[in-house]
Amino acid sequence: xxxxxxxxxxxxxxxxxxxxxxxxxxxxxxxxxxxxxxxxxxxxxxxxxxxxxxxxxxxxxxxxxxxxxxxxxxxxxxxxxxxxxxxxxxxxxxxxxxxxxxxxxxxxxxxxxxxxxxxxxxxxxxxxxxxxxxxxxxxxxxxxxxxxxxxxxxxxxxxxxxxxxxxxxxxxxxxxxxxxxxxxxxxxxxxxxxxxxxxxxxxxxxxxxxxxxxxxxxxxxxxxxxxxxxxxxxxxxxxxxxxxxxxxxxxxxxxxxxxxxxxxxxxxxxxxxxxxxxxxxxxxxxxxxxxxxxxxxxxxxxxxxxxxxxxxxxxxxxxxxxxxxxxxxxxxxxxxxxxxxxxxxxxxxxxxxxxxxxxxxxxxxxxxxxxxxxxxxxxxxxxxxxxxxxxxxx
Length: 394
Hints:
The protein is an alpha/beta fold. It folds into two domains: 2-185 and 302-391, Zn peptidases (Aminopeptidase), CATH 3.40.630; 189-298, Alpha-Beta Plaits, CATH 3.30.70. It is 35% helix and 26% strand. It contains eleven helices and 16 strands. The strands form four sheets. It has an eight-stranded mixed beta sheet, sandwiched between helices. The protein has a four-stranded antiparallel beta sheet with strand order 10-12-8-13. The chain has a two-stranded antiparallel sheet with strand order 7-14. Helix 1 packs antiparallel against helix 11 (376-391), helix 4 (106-122) crosses helix 11 (376-391) and helix 6 packs antiparallel against helix 8 (267-287). The longest helix has 21 residues, at 267-287.
């Protein structure tokens, strides 16, 4: 059976998948600067005899064609960029690029897709259809590499009938995957607020217009967007993680700034919430004698897993690893630029378990100690290859 052959190939290439992942982990590059990463991917594809072309700067698009008759096309996507985080792991493959780290697992995504490519190339005489491999830059930075690739025609010539992606998930044990039909991940907007007043001596606040107090009022009031204005059945998150008022213990500054993120799963409410937040903040500042500059940078849309395709992927995964290892997932309020694919093509994005508490591998994404149980790479490569050939009708 083709499934058994794919599983055997996944075992045989497991060591090379680990080596590729470790090389990428040791040489992380920031969004849209993935020059060495891109060159590494191209070199590996050349070794496999797989043709490729460059898109969106550092992006790499490759094609594996099955030799049996079929016009079906599927796209498989991996992202390649790292984060501006200083790694704290004591491993021999730790980041060699100061202040940059693969803390979101994109090294594993890229290594996995290279492994999947190798498997597909090995069995291309046994399936029909075309597999488009998308090695994507810039997932971590707006406007998102996915949006740029789509504009450049990555989903054309040939046009895929489905786009599949996976993301490491340290809260789930290696050997399992998680999947959610329908709306899965949130939209993401960046919020930048500058409140201006009139600074002065902290002992004479009546002579000043305190932007710190105005900002504090705005910060608290804005939470009503979630608690009193959003439909309680609609997931909505508003969080501020940066607040700067550069005064002193006895100095009221002229301005205060804060930055945050807004996330939801409905485009209509998203737009309405933007208007309400801006109006609320500006009105509060004006009522207290100051002014407010409220800027929203619209980010990624919400990610939707097309239900029929996702049910197929779930079935294929259960065939490959057993029903007990395929978990139903809830909505996740993280954001992903894979969402751009899901807005224009039938798509499925699932979670790959990479945690292992017995090995001490349980740090969250985007942390200096994030790591993966590399046993997951034996699953990730073969499963995606199996999903592809099954979806293509083989």
